[in-house]
Amino acid sequence: MSTGPPPSQLCLLSTLPLKQVGDKVRFLACVSSYSPVHAILTLEHRLSGDACSVLALVDVNLILERIGANQTRTGEWVNVIGYITDIAPMNDGKRAKGGNSKIQVQALLLWSAGPLDVQKYTASVRALEC
Asked: Which residues form the signal peptide (predicted)?
């Protein structure tokens, strides 16, 4: 019997609204902005054909000394492992796959994705989720 922390759940950013506050998740997303005052990264991963618009607001205060400027640069693809701290609708009040959501995440780890084929990654993760 293990008493360690729970493993993270690999998922797409677009499926985070289906998770619960307190879930430990791992996802890939693109930096759209960074607030150095609050140490909050805004991440997105727009998928062609998806009506869902999801933003992740990732709090990096716990890992500031371990991340570099390249991981907060707009356009950089990063991997995140962390806990969901809040799930909120953006505009229309819906919290479902078809609604727009802002997901707040407390980051435990964050690292650059490096060169990758985002379409292949997305297809691989979707295949795992089924």
From this structure: none
Instruction: Give Dmax over CA atoms of the chain in angstroms.
Output: 44
Number of Cβ atoms within 10 Å of the Cβ of 41: 25
Q: What are phi and psi of 89, to 5 degrees?
A: -70, 150
**How far is the CA of 61 from the CAs of 24, 58, 89, 109, 111, in angstroms?**
17, 9, 24, 11, 15
Question: Could you tell me the residue ranges of all domains in the chain?
Answer: 9-113
* 68-120 confidence digits (pLDDT tens): 999 999 999 999 999 999 998 866 554 444 458 899 999 999 999 988 888 89
Whole-model pTM: value is 0.85
Q: Which of 88, 72, 78, 75 is nearest to 109 (CA)?
A: 78
Q: What CATH number is given for 9-113 in this structure? A: 2.40.50.140
SS3 (DSSP) at 47: coil
